[in-house]
Amino acid sequence: MSSFHQRSSPEPPGPLDDNSEPESDLDIDLQELDPFQPRGIAHRRSAEGQARRQESRPRIPLRNLRLDGLHGLSGRRRGNTQGVSNQVAADEDSRALLDDENGSKAGSAASLGPEGDEAPLLRSGQQDQRSHNRRGTLARLGSALRFRSLVAPSPHLPTPEGLTDTDPEGEVEHDPQSNRTVAVGQLQSSRFPLNAVSNAKYTSWSFLPVTLYNEFSFFFNLYFLLVALSQIIPPLRIGYLSTYVAPLAFVLTITLGKEAYDDIARRRRDAEANAESYNVLKFETNGAFPSRSRGRAAPQRQKKLRRHRKHSQPNGEETRRLHEGESGEQDLESLEDGVPSSSYAEIKKASRDLKVGDVLKLSKDQRIPADVVILGSFLSQNVVADQATNDEDENQSSSSGEYVGSGPESQANQGSNNASIPDTAGAEAFIRTDQLDGETDWKLRLPSPLTQTLDICEYTRLQVMAGKPDKKVNDFTGTVELLPQTRAGYDPHIDKTSIGNTGNNQDSVGDQQRKAALTIDNTAWANTVLASSSTVYAVVVYTGSQTRQALSTSPSRSKTGLLEYEINSLTKILCFLTLALSFILVAAEGFDEKDGRKWYVSVMRFLILFSTIVPISLRVNLDLGKSVYAWYIQNDKGIPGTVVRTSTIPEDLGRVEYLLSDKTGTLTQNEMELKKIHVGTVSYANDAMDEVASYIRQAFGQIVSSDMGQTTLFTPSSVFTSTSNSGTRTRREIGARVRDVVLALALCHNVTPTVEAEHGERITTYQASSPDEIAIVRWTESVGLRLLHRDRKFIVLQSVESERVVVRVKILNIFPFTSDSKRMGIIVQFTQDLNSPLDESGEIWFYQKGADTVMTSIVAANDWLDEETANMAREGLRTLVVGRKRLSHEQYQEFSQQYAQASLSLHARDASMAAVVGEHLERGLELLGVTGVEDKLQRDVKPSLELLRNAGVKIWMLTGDKVETARCVAVSAKLVSRGQYIHTIAKMKRKEAALDSLDLLRNKTDACLLIDGESLALMLTCHREAFIATAVRLPAVVACRCSPTQKADVAKLIRAYTQKRTCCIGDGGNDVSMIQAADVGVGIVGKEGRQASLAADFSIEQFCYLTKLLVWHGRNSYKRSAKLAQFVIHRGLIISVCQTLYSIASEFEPIALYRDWLLVGYATIYTMAPVFSLVLDRDVDPDLAALYPELYKELALNRSLSYRTFFIWVAVSIYQGCIIQGLAQLLVGLDNFPRMVAVSYTVLILNELIMVAAEVTTWHPVMIFSILGTAAIYFGSVPLLGGYFDLKYIISVAFLWRVLAISAVSLVPPYVVKLLRRTIRPPSYRKVQAL
């Protein structure tokens, strides 16, 4: 116990010397202490009388002197102020009297020996009157004293003006590659990164350069840029410059606008996350916040004082003196150990405003915004209040069998009257790290003992030394140091008894007292969640980009869809065709110079004329189409809450062949539930659990109270008595088995109950590192046996029905669960009488539970264990085998001695301890039963995974959880089919063994691979190509214990090796790297945070929404864009064919057939709306798409957009272009150019409108309106085209029949061929519709 608490308790009066008067400690020559007497006289008189005083008078405790002086101080604070004209003299005398550092001065209390402050505070009742008479004089003395040494500001503390939110940090940027020293609660000497989350892809400076680079990295954008720039050169100019520049500018504006909109939306979402507010302690120098500098800082101390008053029960005179002493002690603490180093107030700060050194106050279920070191952890006020209430009820009768006091203190008091409350009560804290590393188990975190017992007002004396930022989430090394007080005086946080009487070893011992090591157990990283019912004070050590979370996350990147690359390749082919055609036309003329133009100038002019072959409007149509797809996705009522964060890759949703999924929070809810229990002869599940509850009521309803007030508790040897009249022997045996296994499950765990007050109701919650154990304890409560209390020494169980204590055990040993042992055990000693002290002769039992793989060889021989565990495993349940063994007192003593010896071994200590346990305990355990715990799956996970597998998607599960957990979830989610072989690779360290495992897998292509992170790292390092070549052929792969970096590496490896589209889905911050590394990243809005959702390309609320997102929206987006792209290419190619024929007919002159407005209008208002309406087309309904996922599988064959379909459209374009322009020249002639242009252009427009109608599968009203409306716009604008057409000829019959004839010849043959193909080889969607 620290001196902090030792000072708070009044000490018992010491014995009086027989030869001395029973004088009060307050007897003192006031003339010696007169602050107004000259200093020299006081000093001389003290020196002369020192020996006499030490021999004849009691020593003057410095604490008592200060205490009585404080009565005067407190009186002055209440308004009894006095003049202090002799302030300087008073300060000097008070320093001479109170300066502990100059303890050798004559007359000072410090010179009386090191025990001066520890002298008794109270002597006897008869002394009180004498001290009371002198109190008025001492009060006047105290009103004049000024404890300057106690309130002098420390040079390492900030001034009152020094700690403001607006003050800048240090001028020097901290080197991220060096260690750091953090001054707690103060401004730092160096600058650190801002604590802001950013998923933005661009900054204000990088937006234009990066986006323009990305755009012009595509060939056809670069091609049109060169074409537009060529119009600056006069010999190459054809028509107006705006004809070529305006379309390119429009395309870039649309694309850059979409990118800017998406990035601004990301920034807004980041701003929401960064605006989350937190309670921060703002420290100031003394007196800034006097009302809050003490009382809230140490609630445990006040609680102890109340408990001491209640139990000590002094007489009336002592009670008054005790209360006065406590009041003085509190005043003293506010001045001595406090007038503290600083005062504090709670303020609100946004997450982005947090800085290194800030002290956070965190509560249950609060996300931790930065990497922090825990300074203190205390039970929440509602929990503390509940325990205090239990303490108040401690004196009530316990004969009724009710357990008195649920807190550790009350339990300790029952066990031992002299037990004291630990200083670190409630110091434990649990955090959830599933958003960081994917592990479902809660992590135990503890503050350093140095900081846990430290008053909050003294936090500014702390310095934390930490290493450089690192992405290792399971490693941390640092130290925390408590700086000495610069003011002279007593330091309550340094144990003076350990320093000794001499000053030689004071520094060395003090250094050990003031410095402590920090490990991973003292930290909490960003994006973890405080899970326990406690209030935690923590100092920020790493912020922003230097947190573990940020360092494990890859930077955002711009994603480009596969369709874009495919169209880019087709564009290169078209450009090559254009260049070849230009050379052919120039070559046909003989490369002769004509009209002063060189042949290469003619080639360039032809290239510009044929630039429509590579349609610039293609990008405009595709980008606008993506926006339509995004709107459809976000407004689909079947997948509410879905958000499209990257609108440039919706087509890739229809091309996914590999799905990489997280487990925790994605496939599962991370909520455990005990679903099945088997006790050897009978199995219970679902509704049969009611029968288990009836057995428990019968077993624990037999607790009786005798006339002597004794309450008999249950022990395992108690006889099970059935209350049913029809109870048979078999039923009694089964009831006893059920009772024993439920009791074992209620005792064999590491769960701690806490009671909280919510909305006026008391709610019991459980804290443990494993959610499995919490699920089991909740189940035992549901069947009638509640865990009432648990501390380090005792476990108390209560009957739910009667609310009486039925079991009380003392914890003798605990053997925690580890990944190597795969089991946990506990040795307990039962108490039979609730009211009597613990009976050392009570029964001793060893309980153990663990995985069936290890427990099979530990429990006694049986014929049902293997079969039942296999049955539960096939159901996807996590099995635990439960056993017990009774130990005699001699057996336990022998084990305890050998176990203690093994724990002192310097070599192979763990193995030695395990050997002792195995020899004495883990032999011939009585098999009690098997439990099956289910990790609840997300809604419709099983049918969703089944549908995706039928759609041809190979599913990988990447998780940070344990191997056994991953296996069970894979089976329960039907990721692994029934009876499918699971090949497990775990803890592999040799390269040769890794190759052997891969060779085995090559021959079993239908197996599922289960591999842990260690083995995966070996594979990726030594056999990268061989591993990925084998793994991508398997139907399912499960990788567990994966770090965020490994998840991202796997995604990148699959992309690089297969060249297929990968989709990664997750819900936690540990999934962000994987999501950003994938071609398509999908984030699920998690319970604890939205990190994955914010960083993803698509955000959904449930995993089952992914199926509709892929098989319906993804399929439609891809098929629509493929059809749209090819139709736009057809539209540009057909007009280029017309230009080619005209150039040939005009003796190879590079003269434009359609100029200016005709060229621009053709690609915009005359054809754009009908062509763009193809984005509304669909071939099947949503229900059929989900019913036949094989339709999605066909998309992997690339039949919608391939070289084959591309050249078919090229052939159609060449045919129709030749027919339209050739027949127009034949039927009208070249002599009348306006008439020929009118006929060919009109046929060209009608041809495109009718071709759009022929391509429609399912009509939409917008399609009909766009086709008819565009036709009306064209014919309505013809009178305005007098500069290009012969308007009189247009209204003639000759014009009409020529247009109809040419259109028929152009359209009928392609449509007939299409019908024949559909009849001979109907597409799959037509087969489905026919069914």
TrEMBL record:
Residues 189-238 form the P-type ATPase N-terminal domain. Pfam families: Cation_ATPase, PhoLip_ATPase_C, PhoLip_ATPase_N. Keywords: ATP-binding, Lipid transport, Magnesium, Membrane, Metal-binding, Nucleotide-binding, Translocase, Transmembrane, Transmembrane helix, Transport. GO terms for cellular component: endosome membrane; plasma membrane; trans-Golgi network. The chain crosses the membrane at residues 1157-1176, 1206-1227, 1233-1250, 1262-1283, 1289-1313. It is a multi-pass membrane protein. Residues 1-135, 152-178, 289-341, 388-422 are annotated as: Disordered. Residues 301-312 have a biased composition (Basic residues). The lineage of its organism: Eukaryota, Fungi, Dikarya, Ascomycota, Pezizomycotina. This is Phospholipid-transporting ATPase. One of its GO terms (molecular function) is ATPase-coupled intramembrane lipid transporter activity. Coiled coil: none annotated. GO terms for biological process: endocytosis; phospholipid translocation; retrograde vesicle-mediated transport, Golgi to endoplasmic reticulum. ATP binds at D662, K663, T664, E773, F817, K849, R878, T959, G960, D961, R1041, K1047, N1070, D1071. Belongs to the cation transport ATPase (P-type) (TC 3.A.3) family. Type IV subfamily. Mg(2+) binds at D662, T664, D1067, D1071.
